[in-house]
Amino acid sequence: MDDWLKDSDEVGPSWLTVDLAIFTLRDNQLMVLLVERGLEPFHGMPAMPGGYVQKNETLREGALRELAEEAGIDGSRLHLEQLGAYADPGRDPRGRVVTVAYLALGPDLPTPVGGTDATRAFWAPVTHVEDGRLDLAFDHKAILTEALEEVRRKLEYTAAATAFCGETFTLTDLRTVYQVIWGRQLDPSNFRRKVLNTAGFVQPTGDQWLPPTGRPAALYRRGQAWLLNPPLLRAATPGQRG
């Protein structure tokens, strides 16, 4: 360490945490995982699951541990990636706390179980955060807003939509993911054409889903491509059919 740091008034102690923005679809709604804080600061308020990174952990290990401890969910099977770092000096009343946020996506994830310093864990509709019905602790609303836009963007350029589906799915299932997350209806024929014309996006299993009524539907699984070429772009105006 440089000697000038020892006596500097410009540098102080800081702490490192991880927070998780975890999205899933339940009952055709986009849901985010929240916990009710059992400790100060913001006791009793909803927040993203997360906590301090232990001294011998990687960031990813800390994120997976916090998810298991605070919500009882095994994150090792989720699509998990870093969203960004958040370090505004006033974001945490306890002092200078830098958090690295993770984005996680999964299909119809189970009911969470609160633990450690979380009184309870629950799935909340994303719309309840967006419209202010749920007031989140720290700067978590701002983080979730960025995370949500990142998910919407990823659906345009990557195969991230398949992370919300099971191992096999119909094109209707996949279209539902896009419609729910983008908040707009998509023309079934156009969507089918775009998906099947995007190399490596999905691949047929050779099996069919047999509904109680109606026509059978072909089953697909995620293909080998992650980046979509061409991309599936959103329309400029919400509510416009694509």
UniProtKB/TrEMBL annotation:
UniProt keywords, alphabetically: Hydrolase
InterPro entries per the UniProt record, alphabetical: NUDIX_hydrolase-like_dom_sf, NUDIX_hydrolase_CS, NUDIX_hydrolase_dom, WH-like_DNA-bd_sf, WH_DNA-bd_sf, WHD_NrtR
Record's keyword annotation contains Hydrolase: yes
A Pfam family of this chain: WHD_NrtR
Residue ranges of every copy of the Nudix hydrolase domain listed in the record: 15-150
Name of this chain's protein: NUDIX domain-containing protein
Native species: Streptomyces dubilierae
